[in-house]
Amino acid sequence: MKSKESNTTLDPSTEEKIKNAARVMFTQKGYAATRTRDIAQEAGINLALLNYYFRSKEKLFDLIMLESMQGFIQSISGVLNDEGTSLQEKIRTLVSNYIDMLTLQPNLPLFVLSELRNHPHELISKLDFKEKLIRSHFFVQIQQAIIEGKIPPMHPLHFIMNIMGMIIFPFVGSPIIKNIGNLDQSSFNELMQQRKILIPEWIFSMMNLK
Amino acid sequence: MKSKESNTTLDPSTEEKIKNAARVMFTQKGYAATRTRDIAQEAGINLALLNYYFRSKEKLFDLIMLESMQGFIQSISGVLNDEGTSLQEKIRTLVSNYIDMLTLQPNLPLFVLSELRNHPHELISKLDFKEKLIRSHFFVQIQQAIIEGKIPPMHPLHFIMNIMGMIIFPFVGSPIIKNIGNLDQSSFNELMQQRKILIPEWIFSMMNLK
DNA sequence: GTCTATATACGGATAGAC
DNA sequence: GTCTATCCGTATATAGAC
Fold first, then answer.
1. Are both A1-55 and A62-206 of the same fold?
2. What is the radius of gyration, based on Cα positions, of chain A?
3. What is the torsion angle, in degrees rounded to the nearest 10, for the CA atoms of residue A198, residue A201, residue A207 and residue A209?
4. Which fold has domain A1-55?
């Protein structure tokens, strides 16, 4: 008899197939516009199975959302809390990892941000992203740099917003960007790769750091 | 008999009431999650009237979307094409106007970007935003500055992405930002006001301009 | 133009056979 | 576990009275 955990790569379990299909559809079209029938078809299974495994569309969605955000938080918290790296190194690593991740999952941020608008409270408080960020070594380093006069004195949120904005926006607005620049997918990705180097430089220059 | 055009301010026509309600609902919850009944209720009229005036939910949506984007493009094209202002002045004005607009309509960008993902082609090509931007005096000034060596040589899109990212992202991600910074609406708006000054400075510093 | 009542379609969820 | 068939609520849209 084959164990439930053995076939992680070769033949995904039905449950995994549904979750993968759901992730694709939800991130592409959002919760309301996604039909459970579409998910079932994409997964190559029957509609009834979806409810058999996950009870309801909403429960399935909540699970996908939770896993997406947990994965994201986990992927950056290591960088943020590495006490052996400078602020500059952290920013470089963060930008690079982030861009690589978004290149693989370009629809993720728009999905998260859209759904967050409609279900604002639950997930944000459940994941407690705020505490994780504020208590991070990264955040402490920013505040310390301000105190020591190495960085212009201003609300640390401005730096967070700038970094996130410069990284995320091109992906969120990719239809517009591609249109303006006459870019196909590969030249768009090339531009994003350039930004791994450029964004940290810009951040440092606006911080008066080097 | 009262003319159709006379009551623009005092008592909006039924058609206007429906459009206003639709704009609010669509931008808040997106196309798929918005119910025509909600729009009718918000407008204080009956559901049947919505179809009487606009035939269908989709036609109403297309109209709202078109008008929103036209309004946006018109509001910035004046600034972009003012031949009497320097690149720096244009950036300052652009940032300031944009932040004021988004403070009044904070849900607009997420709405536009979300719906653009699902109906990518039609509107983008219809509005021809690309041509309007590329042929603008603003764009020419950027390219000229690069040629003259005043700005580091790189794809002009990077500047567009940075400006837009720094302006738009905080609004798109406002639930996260507010949560991280423990901000209520008014302190969030205050931060945005600060950015009217800060963003142009950052842009100039990354351009090596002054 | 505006309403009430209703036709019609669609989507989420379940019953029940295998 | 997986399928087919179906129930049932809800949402869009229309018919028809006023």
1. no
2. 20
3. 170
4. Arc Repressor Mutant, subunit A (1.10.10)
- Domains of chain B: which residue ranges? 1-55, 62-206
Q: Contacts by A174-179 with C-beta closer than 8 Å and gap 24+?
A: A174/A106, A175/B116, A175/B117, A175/B120, A175/B124, A176/B116, A176/B124, A176/B129, A177/B157, A177/B160, A177/B161, A179/B124, A179/B129, A179/B130
In this model, does residue B1 exceed pLDDT 50?
no
User: Strand, helix or coil at B34?
Assistant: coil
Tokens linked to A29:
């079209």
Size of interface A-B (CB pairs under 8 A): 140
- The Cβ of residue B207 has, within 10 Å, a number of other Cβ atoms equal to 21
Q: Which percentage of chain A shows pLDDT scores above 90?
A: 80
| Structure-token pair, residue B10 | 């005092």
Q: Between chains, do A176 and B33 touch, taking CB under 8 Å as contact?
A: no
Task: Name the nt closest to A35 by C-alpha to C1'.
Answer: C11
In terms of phi and psi (left: phi > 0; alpha: psi -120 to 50; beta: otherwise), the region of B182 is left
Contact B49, B18 (CB under 8 A): yes
How does pLDDT run across B87-103, given as a tens digit for each residue?
Answer: 999 999 999 999 999 99
Measured in whole angstroms, how far is the alpha carbon of residue B31 from the centre of its chain?
A: 17
Q: How far apart are CA B111 and CA B201, in angstroms?
A: 29
Q: Give the closest nucleotide to B38 (alpha carbon vs C1').
A: D11
Nearest CA-CA partner of A87 in A142, A153, A14, A16: A142
Å from the B66 CA to the D18 C1': 36
Contacts of A175 (CB under 8 A, 6+ apart): B116, B117, B120, B124
Q: Is B186 helix (H, G, I), strand (E, B) or coil?
A: helix
**pLDDT of res. A65:** 95
Instruction: Output Rg (C-alpha) for chain B, integer angstroms.
Output: 20
The architecture of the domain spanning B62-206 is Orthogonal Bundle (1.10)
Specify the residue for token string 């970094």.
A163
For the question of whether the overall pTM of this predicted structure is more than 0.90, the answer is yes
Let me know if A183 is exposed, middle or buried by CB neighbors in 10 A (0-12, 13-18, 19+). Answer: middle
Q: Are A165 and B114 in contact (CB under 8 A)?
A: no
Please tell me the predicted confidence (pLDDT) of residue A9.
Answer: 61
